């Protein structure tokens, strides 16, 4: 009873959310169109919404739009998977093994401020101009975010959970998998969500320098021909994909750590 | 020692001899429990009553194996306590239910040490929930339960691991007065069936007097037992009836606690440095 009520509430607020989002986007496009049509700005530098739409249709018909999206998403996904799996495993290890934690935490503090884009030249030297360097840059940034969150979540598990588990006779492996990991799960999932956003940011960094396909490359390519309409297409693609990815992770988190949302 | 033979013969007997506990404070170790002797005989229900900071929870944590005493011994059935064990169950004030498991899942967690089949475990968990009046709530998550229900699940979970000793650390402290009274009745009913040795820590004098066979009164700085009251057979008392002996006991404990509070502050440091 309470659950079905909550679901209908959710559906209603979901509908309202969609309405608000459409309204907001419509408003932005309207303002954009007004500025572009006002004649105050050079249309070659600041294209109108319909010019951007036509450019998108061109790219679509050339087959580039979808193939770029596919290439970029594949890169982001592979880099994300490598970084996320590594980050979760290392985070669990550093948080539960005191010696390793002591040794690695200062390193983490030093590595964190290094932006992904600064790594691109090194990645190209190490892994060449192909896919390897992209995976490396993406995996690295995802790894740091996921590691940090996993480490934090796992090392701050409430002491009463551990005490309860031990006095109920749980073995160390059972304590780890049935108590520590679920207790840390909300932090781990938050880390994955942040990692997904970072995967996208570093993907573009990697594609802007040294790539022959992908959304980031297409933006860079358009610069050489001053095709701002195509640049806008790329930027909007990035915005939409990033937002969709984030929504996906929010709903994933609702499923994975459902008890946090009760 | 002759006492050791006796220890082995009984079950769920806790013997504490000269246990002291220190915490590492910013200015060196702070004594939170001065040398304490205490015996919880098999199947008894003992209340530990005292103000906050008197070391009653610390003593409980030491029996549970969460805190190591800095001196003295704590034995359960003759064996020294070296760490948490399912022989000594704990019910926490903050429930400590695992929010990622359902009520049934929480109880099955405690049952896993018995090597039951999945179906047997499920059956036993449902029985344990029914015993605390929550048979319809098996698939509910702790986040969906009221405080009283959570503590009933927690009690069922701890009892499911069949502890010989049950330690309860202000288990009903966060509940409203009405819920607390019904929890007292439930606890007494359930413990009649389980017969573990119970140590019940509380700052509520009435709660201690209603539930226990014996009450120890504690005082702070450093924590120690200052009085022990034999409350007689629980069967002869009831949760909702108060007799003259009850009032006499209540007055005695209240007098002790008030007396400690009224002591001039100047008298305190002398004991604190002991």
Automatic annotation (TrEMBL), chain B:
InterPro entries: AAA+_ATPase, ABC_transporter-like_ATP-bd, ABC_transporter-like_CS, ABC_transporter_ATP-bind, P-loop_NTPase. The keyword Amino-acid biosynthesis does not apply. Residues 16-247 form the ABC transporter domain. It holds the Pfam family ABC_tran. Keywords: ATP-binding, Lipoprotein, Nucleotide-binding, Transport. CDD domains: ABC_NrtD_SsuB_transporters (cd03293). PROSITE patterns: ABC_TRANSPORTER_1, ABC_TRANSPORTER_2. Belongs to the ABC transporter superfamily. This is Sulfonate ABC transporter ATP-binding lipoprotein. It comes from Skermanella stibiiresistens SB22. The lineage of its organism: Bacteria, Pseudomonadati, Pseudomonadota, Alphaproteobacteria, Rhodospirillales.
